[in-house]
Amino acid sequence: MDQDRTLPQERTLLEGLLHYLGIILRYKWFILVVTILAAAGVVAFSIRSLQLPPEESPLPNRYRAYARLLLRDEAQDGMVAMLEALGAPAPRGGTAGSGRLVLEVFNSRSFIDRIIEMNDMVAYYDMADATRTQQRDFVRSNTGGGLDAQAGILTLSYEDIRPEFAQQFANSIVDELDRYFRDRGGLTRGVVLESLRETLAAVESRVASIEAEIRAFQQRYGVLTVEELATSQTAMIRGLEADLVTLERAIRTQTERTRIENDPELIRLRSERDIVSDLIREIEAGYAGGERTMPPRSQLPQLSLELGRLRADLELQQRLRTSLQEQYEIARLSAEANPGFTILEYAELPDEKTGPARGQISMMVTAGAFAGSIFLSFLHYGYKSIRKDPKLMKMLSPEKGT
Q: Which domain holds residue 69?
């Protein structure tokens, strides 16, 4: 039973295939002519596009020039460690991170604007009427960048109908990238230099602040060190004490010599003794007069500790400043010597086109013409079949109103 049911189905399928094959054979000359004409037309078009100058050709050859950069992993030369020692954020992308940074700069608006200006591309491509965004998009559409993170190689390229201009443009990109990163101290080095500059500025500010505090201390007390202040204060007190002893002796002598209570000389000596005693107490207790201050003797140890702390802090900050200055010079010279990548090879003049694939285009057009002619054949056959069938024509014709 299954076999009896299958045989009519296969017969029907075979009859359908033979029917369509018959239609194709009926229109074989039409299909053949359309296919040949399409193939001849696209071949003639391809030949003509080769004969015309590139500027006039509707399908000119395109050439792509390639330049390659060898990226450096700057984490290996101590730059990242220096950043971490300064407490600054350190990039950890290795050569992949460096390559992505180069590509970001390469695709930035300001960089592309400089490249357009350097190569006079507005006049070369006649883009005077194009907006700045359209000019950038055009350049980006013809440039390319590929990163091999494992090998640390970045490939930059440019495509144009003239191989000389493609080479010139690709090399100008490489030279401008090299200049850009040298001016900014390389890849990670630029961050290191900026961090060093900021840290050095903070240290210099701290040094200036400490020096100002020390100068203020010296001006306030009129001495360079607390030891000098203590020596000066002790010398003053000893001198006044010696004067006090002399006055006491003079008072005793004068008292024995005269018995007059209101003796003018005795009054003068006692007045001088009181003045000297007041001066000794004033010096020991401390006083402020004019632009200078005499601290109490009890505060001299504390002042000595304070000044010692300021001097120790100043010495530490000065050593740190010297170390930072040395690190900054090393980083700056290193950045000037190498921008973070090496130009492995400049772009050479391309001698093979990258497009268009005229053979592939011819095949596609020919295949499309062949398929289109078959479709038109079926369409024409179907239209003729409908015209021959009165029932179908009646169904397709509009009904007449009564």
A: 63-187+339-345
